[in-house]
Design goal:
- The complex is a heterodimer.
- By secondary structure, chain A is of the alpha+beta class.
- Chain A is built from 22 helices and 37 strands.
- In chain A, the strands form ten sheets. A seven-stranded mixed beta sheet of chain A has the order 25-28-29-33-32-31-30, sandwiched between helices. In chain A, strands 5-4-3-6-9 form a five-stranded antiparallel beta sheet. A five-stranded mixed beta sheet of chain A has the order 11-14-17-18-19.
- In chain A, β30 and β31 form a beta hairpin.
- In chain A, α21 packs antiparallel against α22 (847-862).
- The longest helix of chain A has 16 residues, at 847-862.
- By secondary structure, chain B is an alpha+beta fold.
- In chain B, 43% of the residues lie in helices and 19% in strands.
- Chain B is built from twelve helices and nine strands.
- Chain B has helices at 6-15, 21-41, 45-56, 61-67, 74-113, 132-146, 160-163, 199-208, 249-263, 306-311, 328-336, 349-352; strands at residues 150-151, 157-159, 192-194, 213-222, 234-244, 269-277, 280-289, 295-304, 320-327.
- Chain B has a seven-stranded mixed beta sheet with strand order 1-4-5-9-8-7-6, sandwiched between helices. A two-stranded antiparallel sheet of chain B has the order 2-3.
- The longest helix of chain B has 40 residues, at 74-113.
- Classes of the chains: A alpha+beta, B alpha+beta.
- The interface between A and B is large, with 86 and 86 residues.
């Protein structure tokens, strides 16, 4: 919503003075540049009012200083038009500027005639855009200035020719004064959905006046005696306000009283075509509306001013019933009913849309949203029926959204128009029509009532106000803030009188009646907000609340931080990828897409599937980097993945699963790295979290290299393999499809489960380091490829028992072959060398004890052999 | 060279049948001089070792002279013995001196050979980086934890009740349309959605624990939006909620102010401006004023609406509270001077490693 300071002042004349400015015509001689966007250039008054508006909840998005667009332009009269001797496209114009001395001006426009009044920029004048006009020769002829087009003056109008001013404009006068273009300030306000009143200039003025404690009033429209309507049938009854003539000769029928709170019409007669005057179009343009024709412009002007949208029908185009009656009826649309709206669009309606229909039950207008084409005002309109109605906000909101028609009218109806303003708005309409000279008001008015929201007094407790706001106001002060905004405190309310003394200031509650322009207010808290607004949020003392709680992260949140800290410490960088996938993304990544959830209303199909794994998103990041020659990325992500729950057994309650499965995953990706690097990160991560028995079990994982992948194990026994996560290399086939370079090491796990394991670990005891020396034993085994090194390690650990303090696989020699007649198991066997450290808490182990332990370890490892299956483990001698 | 070589001295000895004391003294002086010279000429330990054998060894001239002492008369024996000892001592001192010199020289040669160019570091020197959203989120958590808040979390897929219904958005209310909601194809149509704000965490917190409550809820939110420099369909918010007895709008203003100076620093202040949200009333936008006087619109806030408290089973006559929330991504952009929101999501290492 935009408002002009000059317009606000028509409702609250003392606004500017109260804001600390003079009300005289400031800015004479202001620098001539185009409308300043910078608030810094706006006047101090503008700034002060903007601060007040923002503090009232009408946030000023932009403050524009108008009227400084041009300087020293005067009104001149065309005396003579002559052709330029040296140019075809320029003519010589002799003008009188009131000085008595005719001036010759070269002009490129030809739209004026002798006698026309035109704007003259003479030597030293400045036009819009800041250009200063100089006396100069054009093609050998002197030009003593320039005649101006509307654009050169930042005035509405065609740019094809010179602005022709109304006859009677005083010659030689300053154009700004003669057009009443005083300096002005335009405020662009952000109006919240709960402020129906602020969708009008008057409403904004009311709020400001209340804040600044200056008078506010909506002027009474001044209209000459209404003319008798001559075109239609004679008025049937005498219900007019003015007492002369009858109501408009049209019957109003409300089939939907809840949708249409009231339907009020008046007639305008003697309608003549014309153009709206600059003072009117200038305001419309300033507030962002395009001038169309006088009646439409007046309708918009009234809507902007008072917040009541009106609609003018061409009365003669409203079909007449055989009995000579005209009918306007309000009903809900029929399924697939058609209507051509003012914008020329043929629309298919639905039963949730409200329509205004004629005597033939044909839709004329989409109620509250847009008029129909069939009864549109045109140059041939002789009589207009102007309607001002109240429509149900929710219905209008849905209709305007459904049809993509967010009009200025619908924006007001969906907030809730003041149901009491219609008659005033119609009078104002008539006043403006008469002033412009395009129509006269006919006597009589028809107001047909539907159902309006009931308004009840609201009890507002003084304590509650103060408790909610942190203030110490008494009843009188509260009422003092509310009343200027139209919230009246009923003096005779039981709550107010019950405990009040004579002064009333110790009353514990107020009984507030809500003004008709605040349909959003219904409850005590709504009124409390109004008190806060009027008092000023910025004046409320700031107090830091004290409460009994130690702040901090939970143990689990700290663990999550620790995981991320650990990974960053390893040199990995954190990434965040979008959780949306395109259909097929999961399949390309080798993942089943059946469990994936879909978005019902995706903006684009590329973002229509929710990820079940972090893999596709992170692979995209690697591809993005590879395409920019960023290789060897080492990244991780912590993010949620989503899936449908596993199918429940028959009869299991579905109600419990009111949400699908959402899990926090951790994924690590190492480009140009092999699977074992990811395994190492997994094992280290577990150690850092205090899990000592983590491991990897070979098994082909979806999307990963079939023989270089495995399931994660931790706290074995409690969690089944595969449950926790997977590790390995991305399947090279997938990478080649994505045009990416293998190998890429991958680790992905269910972080929630991992943290569950961490948190279920018993508190670990402390073992003092032994004071006795230890002995190291190196054992090297030939091991079949199909026996995991971990199996050998576990066998050694078991055999070494409590005395085995440490074990380390320190050498791997692959592809071991036959040596000196020793048995060979094939090229895929390898030598695994372990270093074992033996020690005891209470003594130095003897050589014999160490030898015995060594032998036990060898026996245990070799017993992994299953020769019939081709599985062998054998000590490598020497 | 005018000194006699050892050979010359030796031959002199052999030719002299009857050595005199004076001749011996002279010879020993020559021997000493020759040894010193040869030691000092040695440039390696083996060379010095050779010279040592020659001048102090069993077959040295000194040893020969010493060996001849026994055949001398008593008086001469003592004199010659003393002369030999003195010469031997001088030679040994010379040897030790040179030995120490050579050791030092050799060590320095070896150290020289061991020298390494410490600037020859292979590969890119890199460390891991936290995403700036995480850095900002953690910084915010730190401030609020310091102010006594705990951190609450909730799911990203929500029921419409948690996201809207409990937050005083009536079914079919146009205010729901302001949120450009993405619905998940799950359960009844439009019953399940990707949360549009972190406020459902308020609801989950209030329905799962009795007041007093003081939590902040950072998290990921979603909206049906096309990605551009300032919009993403996924974004992050942090939400604060305080429910206690006698909590007022003044407490909200005080909390925002305390947060502002703790997070942004000295000289930053805040203000509340009236606004509208269905789930708070009175509602307020809050702005931060930088020390240069310029304003930054940061987020929304307000007193928790009585309808919300009631929906969550809390008596609004007994308890009151405030809530506030703002975007983490935008704060991160401001903090680090990033001007395109999309840069946060590409995973471009050239971007990530700057922070």
């Amino acid at each position: 919503m935009k408002v002009l300071l000059s317009w606000l002042k028509e409702f609250a004349p003392e606004l500017e003075a109260a804001a600390g400015g003079s009300s005289g015509s400031a800015g004479r001689g202001a620098v001539a540049t185009s409308s300043g966007d910078s608030p810094a250039r706006a006047s101090a008054v503008g700034e002060k009012l903007a601060d007040q508006l923002s503090d009232l909840g009408l946030s000023v998005e932009e403050l524009t200083h108008l009227g400084a667009a041009f300087k020293d332009i005067t009104v001149a009269q065309v005396l003579n038009l002559r052709s330029h001797p040296n140019a075809d496209r320029i003519q010589l114009v002799d003008v009188a500027d009131g000085s008595g001395q005719p001036r010759q001006v070269c002009c490129g426009a030809f739209n004026m005639s002798v006698g026309d009044l035109v704007p003259l920029a003479s030597d030293g004048s400045v036009v819009a855009g800041g250009m200063e006009i100089k006396r100069r020769k054009i093609r050998g002829e002197w030009s003593e200035g320039m005649l101006c087009s509307p654009t050169e003056l930042e005035l509405p109008g065609s740019d094809d020719g010179i602005l022709i001013l109304p006859q009677g404009t005083p010659l030689g006068a300053d154009l700004r004064e003669s057009l009443n273009l005083q300096d002005d300030i335009l405020f662009d306000l952000e109006v919240n959905p709960n402020r129906p009143d602020a969708m009008s200039v008057a409403g904004v003025a009311r709020d400001l006046a209340a804040r600044l404690k200056v008078p506010f009033a909506i002027p009474e429209p001044k209209i000459s005696e209404p003319r008798i309507h001559s075109g239609g049938p004679a008025p049937s009854s005498d219900l007019t306000q003015s007492g002369a003539g009858g109501p408009p000769p049209v019957e109003i029928i409300l089939h939907e009283p809840e949708f249409c709170g009231h339907f009020t019409v008046r007639m305008l007669v003697e309608v003549t075509p014309g153009i709206s005057p600059p003072w009117l179009t200038r305001r419309l343009l300033a507030l962002g509306m395009r001038p169309v024709n006088p009646l439409v412009d007046i309708s918009n002007f009234v809507m902007l001013e008072l917040g009541q949208p009106t609609h003018a029908f061409d009365f003669d185009l409203i079909p007449t019933a055989p009995d000579g009656h005209k009918i306007l009826a309000v009903r809900m649309a029929r399924k697939s009913e058609q209507l051509k709206t003012l914008d020329g669009t043929e629309r298919t309606l639905r039963p949730a849309d409200g329509v205004i229909v004629d005597c033939n039950d044909t839709a004329l207008s989409l109620a509250g949203v847009m008029g129909g084409a069939s009864t549109e005002i045109s140059d041939s309109t002789k009589t207009a029926l102007v309607e001002a109605a109240w429509w149900d906000p929710m219905t209008i909101s849905r209709t305007s959204r459904r049809h993509g028609l967010r009009s200025e009218a619908s924006a007001r109806f969906e907030r809730g128009v003041d149901p009491e303003i219609a008659e005033l708005a119609l009078l104002r309409f008539a006043e403006l029509a008469e002033k412009i000279g395009v129509a006269q008001l006919a006597p009589g008015l028809t107001k047909t009532q539907g159902l309006l929201p009931t308004r009840e007094r609201v009890t507002v407790r003084v304590d509650r106000v103060n408790d909610m706001l942190g203030l110490e106001l008494d009843a009188e002060e509260i009422a003092g803030w509310l009343e200027p905004m139209g919230f009246e405190n009923a003096a005779d309310s039981p709550a107010a009188t019950a405990s009040s003394t004579a002064s009333g200031s110790t009353a514990t509650a107020l009984a507030i009646s809500i003004p008709t322009w605040r349909l959003d207010c219904e409850t005590e808290i709504d009124i409390i907000e109004e008190v806060a607004r009027a008092y000023g949020y910025s004046r409320i003392p700031k107090v830091v609340p004290l409460f009994d709680q130690i702040g901090g992260l939970s143990a689990r949140q700290k663990l999550r931080h620790k995981v991320a800290d650990f990974l960053v410490g390893l040199g990995l960088s954190e990434v965040i990828s979008l959780p949306f996938l395109a259909p097929g993304d999961l399949e390309i990544s080798g993942e089943d897409s059946d469990p994936a959830l879909r978005i019902s209303n995706p903006l684009v199909m590329e973002e229509s599937v929710l990820r079940t794994t972090l893999r596709p998103g992170m692979l995209k990041i690697v591809a993005y980097n590879q395409a920019r020659r960023q290789f060897g990325v080492r990244i991780f992500e912590l993010g949620h993945v989503f899936s449908k729950p596993q199918p429940q057994p028959e009869g299991a309650a579905d109600a419990k699963a009111d949400l699908p499965v959402e899990t926090e995953y951790l994924a690590v990706l190492l480009a140009d790295a092999e699977a074992k690097e990811a395994v190492k990160i997994w094992l280290k991560l577990c150690l850092s979290l205090g899990i000592s028995d983590s491991a990897v079990q070979h098994s082909s994982q979806s999307g990963l290299h079939p023989t270089r992948s495995g399931a994660l194990l931790a706290n074995t026994g409690k969690y089944k393999p595969g449950h926790l996560g997977s590790v390995g290399e991305i399947d090279p086939e997938i990478l080649s499809q994505l045009d990416m370079e293998p190998p890429i090491a991958w680790l992905e796990l269910d972080l929630g489960r991992l943290l569950d394991i961490v948190q279920s670990q018993p508190q670990r005891g402390y073992q003092a380091p032994t004071r006795f020396p230890s002995s190291d034993v190196d054992l090297s085994f030939l091991v079949s490829a199909d026996i995991p090194a971990d199996d050998v390690r576990n066998a050694l650990l078991a055999a070494g028992g409590a005395n085995l303090a440490a074990i380390e696989l320190f050498d791997i020699f692959p592809g071991f072959k036959l040596v000196d007649g020793k048995q060979v198991w094939g090229d895929r066997a390898r030598s695994l060398a372990f270093r074992l450290r033996f020690e005891a808490q209470d003594r130095t182990l003897t050589a014999a004890e160490v030898a015995e332990l060594r032998q036990a370890c060898i026996t245990a490892a070799e017993s992994l052999s299953e020769p019939d299956k081709g599985l062998n483990v054998e000590l490598r001698e020497g | 060279m005018n000194e006699p070589t050892p050979e010359q001295s030796k031959s002199a000895q052999f030719t002299s049948a009857q050595p005199t004391l004076e001749a011996l003294r002279l010879e020993l002086a020559e021997l000493t001089q020759a040894a010193e010279h040869e030691f000092n000429s040695a440039i390696s330990s083996p060379q010095l070792q050779q010279a040592k054998t020659k001048h102090l060894g069993k077959s040295s001239r000194l040893a020969a002279i010493r060996g001849g002492i026994g055949s001398l008369d008593k008086q001469m024996r003592r004199e010659v013995g003393q002369l030999c000892n003195a010469a031997s001592h001088t030679i040994e001192v010379a040897l030790e001196t040179r030995q120490a010199e050579l050791l030092k020289l050799e060590r320095s040669t070896q150290l020289e050979a061991e020298s390494v160019d410490l600037t020859e570091v292979l590969g890119e020197i890199s460390v891991g980086h936290f995403h700036i959203i995480t850095q900002t989120r953690r910084a915010l958590e730190d401030v609020f934890c310091g102010m006594g808040y705990q951190v609450a979390e909730g799911p990203e897929i929500e029921t419409e009740w948690h996201n809207f219904g409990a937050l005083n958005f009536p079914q079919g209310h146009p205010a729901r349309d302001m949120y450009d909601t993405l619905y998940v194809d799950w359960g009844k149509p439009m019953s399940t959605l990707l949360r549009t704000h972190t406020s459902p965490v308020q609801v989950r917190t209030m329905t799962s624990q009795p007041p007093p409550i003081a939590v902040v809820a950072p998290g990921r939110c979603f909206r049906r939006d096309t990605a551009d420099a300032t919009h993403m369909p996924v974004f992050h918010q942090i939400e604060g909620l305080l429910i206690d007895r006698d909590i007022s709008l003044g407490h909200l203003a005080g909390t925002i102010e305390a947060f502002t100076s703790a997070f942004f620093g000295e000289g930053f202040t805040s203000r509340l401006r009236p606004s509208y949200f269905p789930f708070t009333e009175p509602s307020a936008e809050f702005d931060i004023q930088r020390p240069d006087g310029s304003w930054l619109e940061l987020g929304g806030s307000g007193m928790v609406h009585p309808n919300v408290l009631e929906a969550c089973g809390i008596d609004p006559q007994e308890w009151s509270g405030f809530a506030f929330g703002f975007g983490i991504d935008r704060l991160a952009m401001i903090r680090y001077g990033v001007d395109d929101l999309r840069d946060l999501w590409t995973g471009d290492m050239r971007f990530l490693k700057q922070f």
